[in-house]
UniProtKB/TrEMBL annotation:
Substrates-to-products reaction catalysed: uridine(38/39/40) in tRNA = pseudouridine(38/39/40) in tRNA
UniProt EC number: 5.4.99.12
Alphabetical keyword list: Isomerase, tRNA processing
Stated name of the protein: tRNA pseudouridine synthase A
Binding positions for substrate per the UniProt entry: 114
Source organism per UniProt: Dactylosporangium siamense
Length: 270
């Protein structure tokens, strides 16, 4: 008998080749799987809400895994402490929760929210923030960035901004995309959608930065939505400015199965 467990995870993506396990490469899933196997003897189906690319960080990543029920009963009370002692310092499990078998970290999710940090300060990123803040060499205009962002919100085919996978849809519903300038001068983009295709967030940000520094018109990024292939003129923003900060799920556990089934049908239909 097995128990399904939800893990809320944070990591510094600097020294990882992304989330997914890869031969001879250090990955977040690889580190977690090694430690979970050591603790539980066997684990099955480590599934993540959103696979992050090499160099991308997370403060609110979510994954699930099935573990033996007897081992869960023995370890659950002290599991967070044990994980903290066994995992490397650039990965932390923030919470471990038993969840219904209907919970699926990927397909039950309602939305994913990312933040992207940029500084246009002449001196560049501060030393303690150099791993999560991109230095932009040109001054950036906040109003121009938000004007560019406005035209990208909604349900669209984002093929121009995605690394295309065969038989995979590039239609997504972006329900939030905006910029703010924090008191320390850092510009932060917030991007939220039902899901994202590969490199979509960084491509959206890259296009907007070219508007923010005056090299493109505010209407240019939205104009690319009419394309059905990737736009080569869009620069993919550097990975290290991006962090996954939140994944939302239905509040009522009874809605988990229906949400998962709906998401699967949409992906199959596309």
């Amino acid at each position: 008998m097995s128990i399904r467990v939800r893990l809320d995870v944070a990591y510094d993506g600097t020294d990882f080749s992304g989330w997914a396990v890869q031969p001879a490469r250090r990955t977040v899933a690889g580190e977690l799987t090694t430690v979970l196997t050591r603790l539980f003897g066997t684990v099955d189906g480590l599934t993540v809400a959103g696979r992050t690319d090499a160099g991308v960080h997370a403060t609110g990543q979510v994954c699930h895994v099935d573990v033996p029920a007897d081992r869960w009963e023995t370890l659950s009370a002290a599991l967070l402490r044990k994980l903290a002692g066994l995992l490397p310092p650039d990965v932390r499990v923030l919470a471990v929760t038993e969840v219904p078998p209907e919970f699926d970290a990927r397909f039950s999710a309602l939305s994913r929210r990312y933040e992207y940090r940029v500084t246009d300060a002449v001196h560049g990123a501060l030393p303690l923030r150099r791993h999560d803040t991109v230095a932009w060499a040109r001054p950036l205009d906040l109003d121009a960035l938000n004007a560019a962002a406005e035209g990208l919100v909604g349900e669209h085919d984002y093929a121009a901004f995605c690394r295309r996978k065969e038989h995979a849809t590039t239609i997504r519903a972006v329900n939030r995309l905006d910029w703010r300038r924090d008191p320390d001068g850092i510009l932060v983009a917030t991007v939220q959608a039902d899901a994202f295709c590969q490199q979509m967030v960084r491509s959206l940000v890259g296009a907007q930065l070219f508007v923010g520094d005056g090299r493109r018109a505010a209407s240019w990024p939205a104009g690319l939505l009419s394309r059905r292939v990737r736009a080569d003129e869009v620069t993919v923003a550097p990975a290290h400015g991006l962090s996954l900060v939140e994944v939302r799920y239905p509040e009522d556990p009874a809605d988990l199965r229906s949400r998962s089934e709906l998401t699967r049908r949409r992906r199959d239909a596309d």
